[in-house]
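Task: complex structure prediction.
Instruction: return structure tokens for all chains below.
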Amino acid sequence: KAGVTQTPRYLIKTRGQQVTLSCSPISGHRSVSWYQQTPGQGLQFLFEYFSETQRNKGNFPGRFSGRQFSNSRSEMNVSTLELGDSALYLCASGTGGASGEKLFFGSGTQLSVL
Amino acid sequence: GIQVEQSPPDLILQEGANSTLRCNFSDSVNNLQWFHQNPWGQLINLFYIPSGTKQNGRLSATTVATERYSLLYISSSQTTDSGVYFCAVEPGYNQGGKLIFGQGTELSVKP
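Output:
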């Protein structure tokens, strides 16, 4: 069974631009959650999607948004990029239980904002 | 919100040594997971362990939910064990997919 696939692996953008990241979960998994990892703040939860609906949300500004498609693939968008958005963005795949499930992570997208 | 604290922050071991990593959390949680982040950035799920003890090869984990801590044991460490170890908790029911991570323990195993 293929794992969680994130594309692209690396991105370089400039301030003010927008970016879209993609995540394909493990086949049969219906939940995708997104995390931001920075040296200063560590790993922080962005949001989680299940059956094309946002089910949980972290404390990030509205510039961060996402969506999920009917095949469970998810995209995350960041608009009006700031230098502080430079980070490793990880997505996690799960079966979609309301709670108490094991999550599997992709290799991440490393975003650099210049 | 829930606080997750890991100790020690850094650990250097000689190959073959044993180690114990600790994770304390400040409130009741729905589940707890241990991850290893490899040099390429991927988080590998080691254990899903809301309570009790589990073993997987040279690794084992124990969670005492009533006392709000979990321990990860690494025996006979190898250089490939190097990396950052994170514990993460699900803060409550109906929070599936949402994990609160500790700051990690960076382990370096020297040959």
